[in-house]
Each structure stands twice: as C-alpha cells, then as structure tokens.
Amino acid sequence: MKAKYDFLIVGAGLYGAVFAHELKKAGKTCLIIEKRSHIAGNIYTEEIEGIQVHKYGAHIFHTSNREVWEYVNRFAEFNGYVHSPIANYKGEIYNLPFNMNTFNRMWGVVTPDEAKKKIEEQISSDYSKCPENLEEQAINLVGRDIYEKLICGYTEKQWGRPCRKLPAFIIRRLPVRYTYDNNYFNDAYQGIPAGGYTAMVERMIDGIEVRPNTDYLAEKSRWDSIADRVVYTGPIDAYFGYKFGTLEYRSLRFETEVLDMQNFQGCAVVNYTDRETPYTRIIEHKHFEYGTQPKTVITREYSLEWKPGTEPYYPVNDEKNTALYVKYKALAEKQQGNVIFGGRLGEYRYYDMDKTVEAALKKVREVLENI
Ligand code: UDP
Questions:
Q1: CATH dotted code for 5-80+189-246+315-369
Q2: 59-85 per-position pLDDT tens digit
Q3: From ligand 1's centre to the CA of 214, what distance in Å?
C-alpha cells in the first residue's frame, strides 16, 4: 500500500470498478477497499458444477445505450442470451413481460385488437387518470385479472408493502406489448458475460490494488487520510451515521441447491406470483448460458426487510424514503466534491447495471475535467 493515493474507492461493485478503471486510464492512482471477501458487489458470480451462479440474484445486462454496450464488451464477450422469464400462478404458466402470449393464456384472445378490447373492458370502471401508486398504474396498463394473478401477490412479496403504497414507476419497468414477443426487455442490446460477471469486473480493475474484508466506516478517518478524494458506493445513510434515521431497503435471502438432473424448470427464471409461495422466484443458472452440464444449480429467492447487518439490495423509493434521502443528499453535496456518492446504495436509486455504468462514466469524466 502507498502512503497516499489520488482516490480511495469504497466498494468493488460495478460503479466502483468502472470509476477505478477510468481513473487508472487517466493516470490517477487509486485503492479500492471492499467490505466483503470478494469483488463485483451484487453482480458477483461463482462457478459451481461448471455453471456460473449469480450469488446475489439474477443479473441480465441490457441497454439501449450503444456507448455503454461497447464499453462492457471491452471486458467480456456477451453471449446473446435473451431474457424470457415465466410466471407460475398456482400452476398456471404465463409468459412475461405482459404480451400477446400472456393475454392469450389469460383470456383466449388471439389478435391485438381483441386483447386491447379486453383490457379496456377490464379497466373501464377502474381507470385512474393520474395513477399515483403501483396498483393504479398496473390496472391502467393491463387490467384487473393480470394485476391480481401476476402482479399483486408477487409485488407485495417482493416489496413487503401493499401495492397502493408503492411508487408507480416500479411497474413501468416492465414492457406491455401487443405482439407475441417474450423478450423481457425493450433494449437494443442484452446478454450475459461469458465466464461470469466476476471475471468481467476483474478485467475492469486489472492492475488496481484491492483490499477485500475492509470496512471503511469502521476506520473512516484512517482511510480518508490516505487519499485526496473518496468515491463512496456504500449506503448513504450509513456514511452519515444514520443521523436523520435509516433509509429502508429490501434485502434478499437465497437458498441454493445442486440437483442431480440436467434440467429442472426449462428456463432461467420462474416467478411465483401467488401470495402463498414464500419465495418470489427460482433461478436455474445454467439457462443463462445454455449450459449442458449433467447437473443443475437452482436458487430460491426470498425477499425480506433489510435490517442492520444484512445486505441491502433494493432502495424503497417511496415518498417517506425519498424525503429522507433528500436530506442525506443535501449533506453529501456539502462535501465539496471531495467525496463522491455513487451506485445503487450511494445514490439510493433502483439502478440497473447499464445505468450504473452510465452514471459512473459521466461522473468520472466530470471529476477528471475539474481536477
Ligand atoms: N413484477 C410483477 N410480476 C412479475 C414480475 C415483476 O408484478 O412477474 C413487478 C414487481 O412489482 C417488480 C417490478 O415488476 O418489483 C419490476 O420487476 P423486475 O423484473 O424489473 O424486478 P427485478 O428483476 O429488478 O427484481
């Protein structure tokens, strides 16, 4: 370790890795410290039985930003995987996202006109002019039947809150299509990096010093003293000692099993959209890479409220938390550029991977221009 670095990067996830890569390219020295025992944050993958296992939940890279796509392709070869998860509602199987296949299975309609009429009929008495929450937004988009079978139970399990208390934007992440197209994303580019995300992040931070198992906040002043600037990608409320109270996050718990069979569910992701099944989804990792191994690895994903000491995954961007975040953000802005807050936890935003890369590139360029 050197006595002094230009930058200390707190967190070896995607945001930190892109930031560090760009800094090194610009001739700056940096040190990455990471609380966990490994790099790559929540996109960390680990090989089990020859299969890349997404240890912190399924991650599918998708983007419409060509620059971001070309950028990540410099560090990994992407395999052309197209995400087409299915929903299992009490044994009934529906295609996702909501499209003509879903509508046909739900109502027997065959043409887009028939589907539109059916949805209009469903929402005639329920339409909200300005949908103010997830329930109103979902019903506006797809009607009550789909809301009840495929959205309501799943969303309430995933977020631990009634749909009427959740922001509408969460459901707008999902496309609604009047075509027979099961591609989960509307983006121009998507895929899974061959060899896993960990290898991709390793290439990003090649040649940069990383110290795992290192808790920045436990020895903050010591770490602050060894760099001119800090890029902090941990939870913003933790940085400020939770002085205004804790922001809420959803956490996840995973149960992973190796099964002595080739193919368990025939698809990478099956969502269990009823209320009663305790997990939200089952991931069968090999299908992300068209694996033909004799065994398979599956993970049941359970959603739970975050408590100190567990891993935060999803920011809960409802009104109450957004108002609290605004207070922390105001404090962060007073750090006069010496501390940069970034990523899902540092900015308390439901970022996808491409948006994380985009945000890191934008910020690092801005920082380098102003040095
Ligand atoms: N969603 C749902 N039913 C599904 C899949 C998704 O109701 O079968 C809703 C749910 O509210 C979820 C949101 O759509 O939180 C966004 O889903 P996405 O797949 O983008 O979530 P992620 O993969 O980020 O967990």
A1: 3.40.50.720
A2: 999 999 999 999 999 999 999 999 999
A3: 33
